[in-house]
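To illustrate the input format used throughout this study, we show a single complete record. The first block contains the structure-token representation of the backbone; no residue identities are included at this stage. The design step must infer an amino acid for every position from geometry alone.
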């Protein structure tokens, strides 16, 4: 039994036992519906009281890397990958998507400067062709781009050259902001590059601290063109306690950014709550706890009149872990975590996707000159979130017990209520008795399912799947089930490890 999970009575205890079995790789086969145990009903009530501000447009986006962008988009500006474009449009239909291009690659990329050698750690050269392709991608998607510029290299001129190239080749129409560096709070101990002898080097000396960063920021800001800056793109939250100094360094900054991963695939003791396992991923600390960790800084930003954006989010840092971040468990985690982040006021989120990583949202291929994609479970969770929480909608308060069932409710500008119910229990079906204001008319159930918690494929949303590959990026119209309330209460039975969207 994992000692880092808080054991609660009854339903919660049985959940932990089942998750511990999964963590030991003993529960690997689908749980047949006839074999699922029955639990006492979960009784919950949706109130008519809003619990959030209206959902802003463009809340949900993606984050991509410089050196991998062409794997998703292709290299021909006249033929941008249409499957990628549709998959991204699905996450922000009728909106202007915001795509962040950065991550670690922001600090090992540069736009070559004539007669200048790059710093040793810089190993990816941007070209005019790369810039043209990026502009074509933004134009095809109708997106705004957040572009990271190099800070780790230690030369302000490199960032200035990149910024000028972006302004010249991409233009302000598609360029929303520049982000200076990537996770500078790790520069003093995280490996930036390794030489041919296997010696590792950091981007800054061990003495590098927040004051050092502010000094760097001032130097870089002085040579950059007058383009909006956002940041500081932190891996940890400690420096955000200095938000006043961050904002004072550039009064034009309107967005504070940080990164969040629930767990770590880097060397981590198995006893740590950050160890990458399914039980740890589905623990409340990895979703609600992750959101509560950023909540004070979200409030701090809003008090100062700026937005708070998580422009890099995913389940497991260090490229993810097979059997955890590529499973249906991660899809359920993603769905719940996005709601949790919205509930504490996060203004926007970019979910990170990196080709070859275990948390990749979709795997793109181009056989026989035809674009296609395999869609991973996380993406399905994102898609259900988007359907349940459209722009203008507000979260509604929900009274619900602790346990493996998570319930989120929204009311849209169309007057419709959308309620997501998540059953994270890997062994037991759960019956939910849900009281909803105004219940009584026709409603529908749209299911998110997979064979089991560890499934990496065969996920369905609305009884439809992207399958082993999609050449359109579109799901067929959902096949929903009707449901009727009795005395103002809906009774919904959720199979083990599933989620459902009830639309009233």
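Output of the design step:
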């Amino acid at each position: 039994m994992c000692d880092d999970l808080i054991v609660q009575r009854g339903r919660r205890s049985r959940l932990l036992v089942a998750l511990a079995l999964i963590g030991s790789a003993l529960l690997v086969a689908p749980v047949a519906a006839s074999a699922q145990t029955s639990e006492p009903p979960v009784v919950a009530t949706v109130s008519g009281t809003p619990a959030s501000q209206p959902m802003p447009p463009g809340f949900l986006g993606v984050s991509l890397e410089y050196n991998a962008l062409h794997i998703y988009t292709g290299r021909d500006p006249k033929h941008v990958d249409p499957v990628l474009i549709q998959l991204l449009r699905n996450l922000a239909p009728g909106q202007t998507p915001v795509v962040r291009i950065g991550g670690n690659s922001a600090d090992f990329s540069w736009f070559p400067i004539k007669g200048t050698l790059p710093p040793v750690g810089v190993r990816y050269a941007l070209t005019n062709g790369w810039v043209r392709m990026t502009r074509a991608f933004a134009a095809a998607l109708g997106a705004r781009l957040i572009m990271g510029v190099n800070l780790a290299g230690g030369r302000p001129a490199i960032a200035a050259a990149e910024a000028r190239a972006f302004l010249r080749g991409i233009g302000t129409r598609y360029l929303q902001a520049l982000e200076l560096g990537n996770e500078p709070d790790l520069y003093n101990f995280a490996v930036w590059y390794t030489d041919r002898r296997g010696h590792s080097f950091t981007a800054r000396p061990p003495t590098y601290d927040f004051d050092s960063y502010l000094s760097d920021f001032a130097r870089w800001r002085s040579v950059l063109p007058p383009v909006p800056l956002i940041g500081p793109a932190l891996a940890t939250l400690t420096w955000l306690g200095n938000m006043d100094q961050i904002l004072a360094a550039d009064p034009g900054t309107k967005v504070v950014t940080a990164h969040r991963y629930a767990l770590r695939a880097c060397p981590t003791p198995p006893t740590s709550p950050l160890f990458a396992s399914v039980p740890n991923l589905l623990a409340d600390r990895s979703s609600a706890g992750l959101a509560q960790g950023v909540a004070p800084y979200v409030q701090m930003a809003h008090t100062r009149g700026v937005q708070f954006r998580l422009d890099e989010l995913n389940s497991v840092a260090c490229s993810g872990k097979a059997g955890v971040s590529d499973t249906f468990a991660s899809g359920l985690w993603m769905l719940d975590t996005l709601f949790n982040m919205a509930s504490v006021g996060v203004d926007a989120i970019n979910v990170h996707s990196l080709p070859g990583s275990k948390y990749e949202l979709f795997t793109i291929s181009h056989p026989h000159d035809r674009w296609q994609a395999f869609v991973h479970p996380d993406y399905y969770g994102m898609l259900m979130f988007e359907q349940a929480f459209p722009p203008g909608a507000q979260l509604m308060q929900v009274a619900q017990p602790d346990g493996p069932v998570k319930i989120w409710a929204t009311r849209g500008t169309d007057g419709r209520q959308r309620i997501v119910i998540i059953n994270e229990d890997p062994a037991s079906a759960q019956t939910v008795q849900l009281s909803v204001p105004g219940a009584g008319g026709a409603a529908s159930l749209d299911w998110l399912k997979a064979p089991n918690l560890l499934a990496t494929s065969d996920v369905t949303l609305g009884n439809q799947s992207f399958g082993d590959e999609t050449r359109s990026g579109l799901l067929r119209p959902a096949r929903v089930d009707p449901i009727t309330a009795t005395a103002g209460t809906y009774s919904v039975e959720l199979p083990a490890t599933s989620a459902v969207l009830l639309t009233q």
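Structural context for interpreting the output: Confidence is low (pLDDT under 50) at residues 1-18, 20-35. Residues 104 and 388 are 32 Å apart (CA to CA).
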